[in-house]
């Protein structure tokens, strides 16, 4: 009887506090093709094409301008490097309001925390500011951040 009385007292309060409609929540950004009137340039240092040489955005750039990142683990897809780069750029273009994400960084062999362990994968990072050569540093761990690609998206206003 006491439980029924408590339920009868609080049920109207609980129900009245629920939203009357379901609000769509944002998930991962949806890749959108970059229009032909936009240009993509690479701010990356010229010497990254050497095998075994990697670069990464500086810690301060990441902490100040990072919007989103996702990781693709080995065996998750069969995309080529060019397709991964295009997907990363188009994910940036599709992020939030147009012009909110304007720069990307993609690299393989990046160690990321996953369920209390460290797993290596390909990371795509999205940024709110264009990258410049000064925004890169050598990776802390040699052999990581391999095959790096960076892209700045410029679209007319």
Question: Would you give an account of this structure?
Answer:
The chain has helices at residues 2-16, 59-65, 81-93, and strands spanning 39-41, 56-57, 66-72, 103-114, 117-127, 136-137, 146-154. The chain is an alpha+beta fold and 157 residues long. Strands 1-7-4-5-3 form a 5-stranded antiparallel beta sheet. The longest helix has 15 residues, at 2-16. It is globular. It starts with a helix and ends with a strand. Residues 1-26 have low confidence and may be disordered.
How is this structure best summarized?
The protein has 157 residues and is of the alpha+beta class. Helix content is 22%, strand content 29%. The chain contains three helices and seven strands, in the order H-E-E-H-E-H-E-E-E-E.
Q: Helices and strands in order, then pairings?
A:
Layout: H1 2-16, E1 39-41, E2 56-57, H2 59-65, E3 66-72, H3 81-93, E4 103-114, E5 117-127, E6 136-137, E7 146-154
Antiparallel strand pairs: 1-7, 2-6, 3-5, 4-5, 4-7
